[in-house]
Amino acid sequence: MSAGSGVKLVKVDPDRAGQRLDNFLLGQLKGAPRSLIYRILRTGQVRVNGKRAKPDTRLEGGEEVRIPPVRLAEPGDPGKPAPALLQRIEKAILHEDRDLLVLDKPSGIASHGGSGISFGAIELMRQLRPDQSLELVHRLDRDTSGILLLAKKRSALSELQRMMREGGIEKRYLALLSGQVRKPKFSVDAPLEKSVLQGGERMVRVDAAGKESLSHFSLIDRYGDFSYVEVKIDTGRTHQIRVHSAYAGFPVAGDDKYGDKEANQKAKKVGLKRLFLHAATLSFALGDGERPYVLNAPLPDELKAVLDRLV
């Protein structure tokens, strides 16, 4: 399916001020994979006011963006998502108002498509709401469930992303850790370095050259060889809780990337079929503190069942 028979010249709405160019193009070329967006940028086919631009170029509003004709579906492309998947994400809507759409994202659904994933949460919601402007505020790992914020307005997106950078959003997770945590509270202050392996897999490690990262763990209960904890993160690095917990000697149960194989086998015997990590609470205030939000996503039933079997 062609996006058009020729070049499109699109004037950037003032409401898009501050948006990255790659995200703007994703909104213009519905269904286009990020790899295609980066390719047409890299080859200079996209121009902003007649000049080449990088994916992370911030738009100011009022620019003219040249968008080349592209093919959005090739033989073997996935086409439309399955109705059952759309129903699943629609049922996951936790809250909605004029600025935000909040999902209780199920485990197994990525935040966005790419790297072999056809449809993430944002693509599915855009399929359900084709006439709305929806943008991801942040991301959750594919295997992590819980609160995922989507902005319906550019102003809300900019404000929330600023708060994310400045620590204005309190994020709390629930996790089952392998091992017996003895201290009621402990923190991990360890910089994280991200790398991408040859196959495209992302790996993160503690490294002095990495970005500052801070996680606070609070013990809720012990279950034999496992510990149930709440984790408050002051930074939002990729795989932060998973890497920090493993670094502390208590990897997240069900984590096939950073976890303990023997502990994961024990967890499987009591029915754990996924990563035991859930984004449970987000607290923040929009409008310079005038509109407070406290969003809560309950622990999924399949994780509650694991805790019941561990008793």
UniProtKB/TrEMBL annotation:
<keyword id="KW-0413">Isomerase</keyword>
<dbReference type="InterPro" id="IPR020103">
    <property type="entry name" value="PsdUridine_synth_cat_dom_sf"/>
</dbReference>
<keyword id="KW-0698">rRNA processing</keyword>
<dbReference type="InterPro" id="IPR036986">
    <property type="entry name" value="S4_RNA-bd_sf"/>
</dbReference>
<feature type="active site">
    <location>
        <position position="141"/>
    </location>
</feature>
<dbReference type="GO" id="GO:0160141">
    <property type="term" value="F:23S rRNA pseudouridine(955/2504/2580) synthase activity"/>
</dbReference>
<comment type="function">
    <text>Responsible for synthesis of pseudouridine from uracil at positions 955, 2504 and 2580 in 23S ribosomal RNA.</text>
</comment>
<comment type="similarity">
    <text>Belongs to the pseudouridine synthase RluA family.</text>
</comment>
<dbReference type="InterPro" id="IPR002942">
    <property type="entry name" value="S4_RNA-bd"/>
</dbReference>
<protein>
    <recommendedName>
        <fullName>Pseudouridine synthase</fullName>
        <ecNumber>5.4.99.-</ecNumber>
    </recommendedName>
</protein>
<dbReference type="InterPro" id="IPR006145">
    <property type="entry name" value="PsdUridine_synth_RsuA/RluA"/>
</dbReference>
<dbReference type="InterPro" id="IPR006224">
    <property type="entry name" value="PsdUridine_synth_RluA-like_CS"/>
</dbReference>
<dbReference type="GO" id="GO:0000455">
    <property type="term" value="P:enzyme-directed rRNA pseudouridine synthesis"/>
</dbReference>
<dbReference type="Pfam" id="PF01479">
    <property type="entry name" value="S4"/>
</dbReference>
<dbReference type="GO" id="GO:0003723">
    <property type="term" value="F:RNA binding"/>
</dbReference>
<keyword id="KW-0694">RNA-binding</keyword>
<dbReference type="InterPro" id="IPR050188">
    <property type="entry name" value="RluA_PseudoU_synthase"/>
</dbReference>
<dbReference type="Pfam" id="PF00849">
    <property type="entry name" value="PseudoU_synth_2"/>
</dbReference>
<dbReference type="InterPro" id="IPR006225">
    <property type="entry name" value="PsdUridine_synth_RluC/D"/>
</dbReference>
<feature type="domain" description="RNA-binding S4">
    <location>
        <begin position="19"/>
        <end position="80"/>
    </location>
</feature>
